[in-house]
Design a protein that fits this description.
This protein is of the alpha/beta class. It has a domain of about 190 residues: 3-Layer(aba) Sandwich (Rossmann fold), CATH 3.40.50.300. Helices cover about 40% and strands about 25% of the residues. The chain has a six-stranded mixed sheet with strand order 6-7-8-3-9-10, with helices on both faces. β9 and β10 form a beta hairpin. α4 runs parallel beside α7. The protein is globular and about 55 Å long. Bound molecules: adenosine-5'-triphosphate.
Length: about 270
């Protein structure tokens, strides 16, 4: 039996109106990215809303990581990458010459697939960003370290070993440390590129719980291979295929009544 149903135009209009009431934090318009001659993203139009979790799903190689790296301009570190189109963060083009990339990266934090703590103490990992931003006062740094670790649900586990090397933490703890490090500079948006794919189920559950708490204060965009994870944690989902966005909408709707047969096939596990 096919799970595909066509969304009535009236319902679509209501949904669009609901989305319109929310504050857009990020949007991309007609975004194209090439690596040399290979086009990895094709005409991507997407919007992301404040205090929501948006999941980017799709099979391997469909362009999810390329897309997320374009949002904070990390894509520019790839020598043969070419970008065309608009990437707008809170009404401002991220490519605007008057917008320093350091400022963008302070407002838009990123958590990677593999936890990547610095080979420094737990304390220094968290204090690193605030110190770069000029905070030197020890008491202020202590407060930031404690607050960030509490927000990342790691404080109780590490409060007695703050000056030990972060590389001595478990993988799941290291990933929560990386989230705490990202929170320490008080970002507005958090980009996550498969943040739990290297973690065991218990650590994954902790990170998912944490994300649910973080969305009261932050907007989160997460790339995930795991469709159950997207369904559990996200408000909105975008389905990528071969560098295009096939469908984007409320997660509950996209998973129960996908509008496009390719989305239906993917979520039913018929490919990917
Ligand atoms: N640095 C690069 N140079 C050349 N091609 C690249 C580069 N990075 C990615 N690609 C290609 O661009 C396409 C999109 O890759 P991307 O990593 O964005 O996909 P993805 O959906 O994140 O995949 P995965 O789920 O496997 O991480 C793929 O065909 C990939 O081989």
């Amino acid at each position: 039996m096919s799970v595909v149903t066509v969304i009535e135009p009236r319902k679509q209009a209501v949904r669009a109106a609901d989305a319109a009431k929310k504050t857009v934090v990020y949007e991309t318009g007609r975004l194209n990215v090439w690596y040399g001659a290979h086009q990895a993203l094709k005409q991507i139009d997407l919007s992301f809303y404040e205090r929501e979790i948006t999941a980017l799903i799709g099979p391997s190689g469909c362009g999810k990581s390329t897309y997320i790296k374009t949002l904070n301009r990390m894509i520019e570190l790839v020598p043969n990458a070419k970008i065309e189109g608009d990437v707008i963060y809170r009404g401002r083009s991220v490519f605007d010459r008057s917008y320093p990339v350091e400022q963008l990266r302070a407002q838009v934090g990123m958590v990677f697939q593999k936890p990547n703590p610095f080979p420094k103490s737990i304390y220094d990992n968290i204090a690193y960003g605030p110190r770069i931003h000029g905070i030197r006062d020890r008491r202020r740094l202590d407060e930031i370290v404690e607050k960030s670790l509490r927000q990342a649900a790691l404080w109780e586990e590490v409060k007695d070993r703050l000056h030990e090397n972060a590389l001595g933490l478990s993988g799941g703890q290291q990933q929560r440390l990386c989230i705490a490090r990202c929170l320490a500079v008080e970002p507005d948006v958090i980009l996550m590129d498969e943040p739990t794919s290297a973690l065991d189920p218990v650590s994954t559950a902790k990170i998912e719980e944490l994300m649910n708490e973080l969305k009261t204060n932050y907007s989160i965009i997460i790339v995930t291979h795991n469709m159950q994870q997207a369904a559990r944690i996200s408000d909105r989902t975008a389905f990528f295929l071969n560098g295009e966005v096939i469908e984007c909408g409320e997660t509950a709707t996209l998973f129960s009544r996908p509008a496009d047969p390719r989305t239906a096939d993917y979520i039913a596990g018929r490919f990917g």
